[in-house]
Design brief:
homodimer, alpha/beta, Quinone Oxidoreductase, Chain A, domain 1, 2 domains, 6-stranded parallel beta sheet, 12 helices, 25% strand, metal-binding (chains A, B)
């Protein structure tokens, strides 16, 4: 089959790789219908995190179950399934605590699983899923083609934006600022609206992203950054800042922006993968009682809650996909996101 | 009157200073009945934070109102009052948000207030309180002498331990680890019991503090620190750590202990004044979804909730005072705490 490999900076290639084979009893083979490129895939693509050897890449996909191991019970051949961006058993204590990203038996896509077998990357034609029952969520029936982007968003960005909002304690009446206008930041706006925020500020300088942010529920747009951005936010919220600030980028600058935009006693909910070795300035947090909560989003647990709303059209996170390409053009997909010509690219094998 | 001055390392002196004078309309003069030395007072005493010029010190006291300005309404001459470790108006937006430590008009003891008048330090005979109505909480009647230590604990340590627990989200059934066996750590044990924790581990190597921790509700004692301490805690809690870890010291080592003792998805509630420039390791927090919440404790807001339980004897945080000295021996009070001969010293002017 064909799957995407990353070789190094600005070098991704679609290549012939071995077909996946069932091996652990509880696994399944999924034929990928749609996959996508993640903002975090751009770190190795940009060479910010080095690629020491060619490897599979991609961790967001939806598709059809083609085969299941003899121990699989919840998922059936022919099901349309959503895969979160990681594999988990959904039964261990961390999964039961709602932190399936810390599954004691979990695996990453494009790497060896705990059984010693390979779990394929998501940007390919097929993927072997180690814990099919724990990882995959079937839709109640076959979705319409128009619903696929929204369902694919549940694999990562929608659940991740939701995690930012949940981690920051967004609830009815909260004031919210979202730092980051990528797909996750935009989904964080949508999640905040859904959770009842009274006011949602999207920090963005791009007209197309501002428009989508407003569509998702942003009540205000702030274009300023740094000190000017902090000043604008404080002005908007009684001179002190917002209740909840959602950090959806992962740089030192964006975290600084988030912390300083939060009111005393407020919370930063963060989901941006930390880059650049930034540490959190504890004295600044301490003096103002600003909490920092979040991390790698346990999206598997959020799918059952969000799926019905995607299927009903109550939320349409699939709108973050503003470019569709065949898998054969995966290299162009990376380039388009790298050059910010696209918010998020959907790939069809 | 007499008040305590700090001159530098290991150098505190009781000296004659000007009597306080009412000046702002909303202020009061309190005659101090009991004061105490805080763990954070030891930072300048030990020279870890330098003292550039002699200054007043002390920020915990209870006493009797002797005079009030014409605008004071809630507090009356003759009232027994508890002062939190800071002055606040209790009406600004930060106070209304429960973060009175960030009061927009607040003041610190032993420093100039926003009106340009002086707010005395707590380790003295009298204190001018800038916002008497906002800051002071009167007891419903004159307390018994035996109740004074418990009431004094509400000025800082009990409210601060409570804030650690609240910030970490301690609730019915929570598993809790308390890092730090000083007065605040011991009060954090008591606060956790009060909030319904199912299991409370006190990390302590001192027999007397272990005993008090057990009296306050600790179910387990762990003497190990560092890697061994983390391993013991993880062993006790399903191999993953505790739901809530209360950091009540403020060093890099204690915060590291706290973070690594928290289960994925758990929260560190921290109240130890950060020292040594330690920053929070964001990648470690991110990967395990460990939140960090807390800061300088807004104890003023907690007094109304905790006061009735101190008066009824339901909680007895006054037990943290294991040495009483006359104010004249303030220098010995600092030395006893510095040398860990006492957990916390109560001073009587």
């Amino acid at each position: 089959m064909l799957a995407t490999m990353i070789y190094g900076e600005h070098d991704v290639r679609l290549e012939e790789v071995p077909d996946p084979v069932l091996s652990t009893g509880g696994d399944a083979i999924v034929r990928v219908l749609a996959a996508c490129v993640c903002g975090s895939d751009l770190w190795p693509y940009r060479g910010i995190t080095p690629t020491t050897a060619p490897r599979r890449i991609g961790h967001e996909f939806v598709g059809i179950v083609e085969e299941t191991g003899p121990d699989v019970q919840n998922v059936r051949v022919g099901d349309f399934v959503i895969a979160p961006f990681y594999d988990c058993d959904n039964t261990c204590i961390n999964c039961r605590n709602g932190v399936s990203t810390s599954c004691l038996n979990g695996a990453s896509w494009g790497a060896e699983d705990p059984f010693g077998a390979f779990a394929d990357g998501g940007q390919g034609e097929r993927v072997r899923v180690p814990h099919a029952d724990g990882t995959l969520v079937s839709t109640p029936s076959q979705p319409e083609p128009s619903q696929v982007p929204g369902l694919l968003a549940l694999a990562d960005v929608m659940g991740t934006g939701h995690h930012a909002a949940v981690s920051a304690g967004v609830t009815t009446g909260s004031t919210v600022v979202v730092v980051g206008d990528g797909a996750v930041g935009l989904c964080a706006v949508l999640a905040s609206r859904r959770l009842g925020a009274s006011r949602i500020v999207a920090m963005s300088r791009h007209a197309d992203r501002q428009e989508l942010a407003r569509h998702f529920g942003a009540t205000d747009i702030v274009e300023e950054r740094g000190d000017a951005g902090v000043e604008r936010i404080r002005e908007m919220f009684d001179g002190i800042g917002a209740d909840c600030v959602l950090e959806c980028v992962g740089t030192k600058e964006s975290m600084d922006q988030a912390i300083r935009s939060t009111r005393p006693g407020g919370i930063v909910g963060y989901v941006g993968v930390p880059n650049g070795g930034a540490e959190l300035p504890i004295r600044q947090l301490f003096g103002r009682n600003v909490g920092v909560n979040g991390g790698v989003a346990p999206v598997r647990g959020y799918i059952p809650e969000l799926l019905p709303e995607v299927l009903s059209g109550a939320i349409d996170p699939g709108r973050v996909f503003d470019l569709e390409l065949p898998l054969a053009e995966v290299s162009e997909a990376y380039a388009a996101m790298d050059e910010r010509r696209a918010v998020k690219v959907l790939l069809r094998p």
